[in-house]
Design goal:
The chain contains 5 helices and 8 strands. With 149 residues, the protein is an alpha+beta fold. It has a single domain, classed as Alpha-Beta Plaits (2-Layer Sandwich). A two-stranded antiparallel sheet has the order 1-8. Strands 2-3 form a two-stranded antiparallel ribbon. A two-stranded antiparallel ribbon has the order 4-5.
């Protein structure tokens, strides 16, 4: 999958501590609630970014907003689209939860939410965070939001 020039979330694996704060900040930013404790305490979280570990390396898995996204072509409900700004989005009202996008995403960036509807990183553009919440909340600056060549 080729990626076009636009700002995206990138992970510098050598700096990732595996603390999972990016997941909590993501889940909170997308919860629609004004208080993190109310939004997340005692609940299973469904972040749009996920920390994985492979041996000694930890890294975050997130949507790459591909130039030619296979998830858009594969969505049987037409719920996934690519905006003019390059952001790949899921219309959760249209999603039927078939998980085809989960199967075809080469990065493992799509997952169901608590209702079985698919979700993925949309760069927090709908949340008015200014930059993705995972980037803002990373204590070691392992996650960055930038344009790369």
């Amino acid at each position: 999958m080729q990626v076009s020039k636009m700002k995206r979330v990138y992970v510098n694996e050598q700096w990732c501590l595996g603390c999972h704060l990016c997941e909590y900040n993501c889940a909170f930013a997308n919860s629609g609630k004004p208080d993190m404790a109310v939004a997340l305490k005692g609940k299973i979280i469904y972040p749009r970014i996920r920390v994985e570990q492979d041996g000694q390396i930890t890294y975050a898995v997130n949507c790459r907003h591909c130039t030619d996204p296979i998830c858009v072509k594969s969505c049987i409900a037409g719920a996934i689209s690519k905006d003019a700004d390059g952001v790949v989005r899921i219309d959760q009202e249209k999603c039927v939860g078939c998980m085809t996008c989960v199967l075809v995403c080469p990065y493992g960036a799509v997952a169901p939410n608590e209702n079985g509807v698919m979700q993925k990183c949309e760069l927090c553009l709908q949340n008015s965070c200014g930059e993705p919440a995972c980037v803002k909340g990373c204590p070691n600056r392992a996650i960055v939001y930038e344009e790369r060549g």
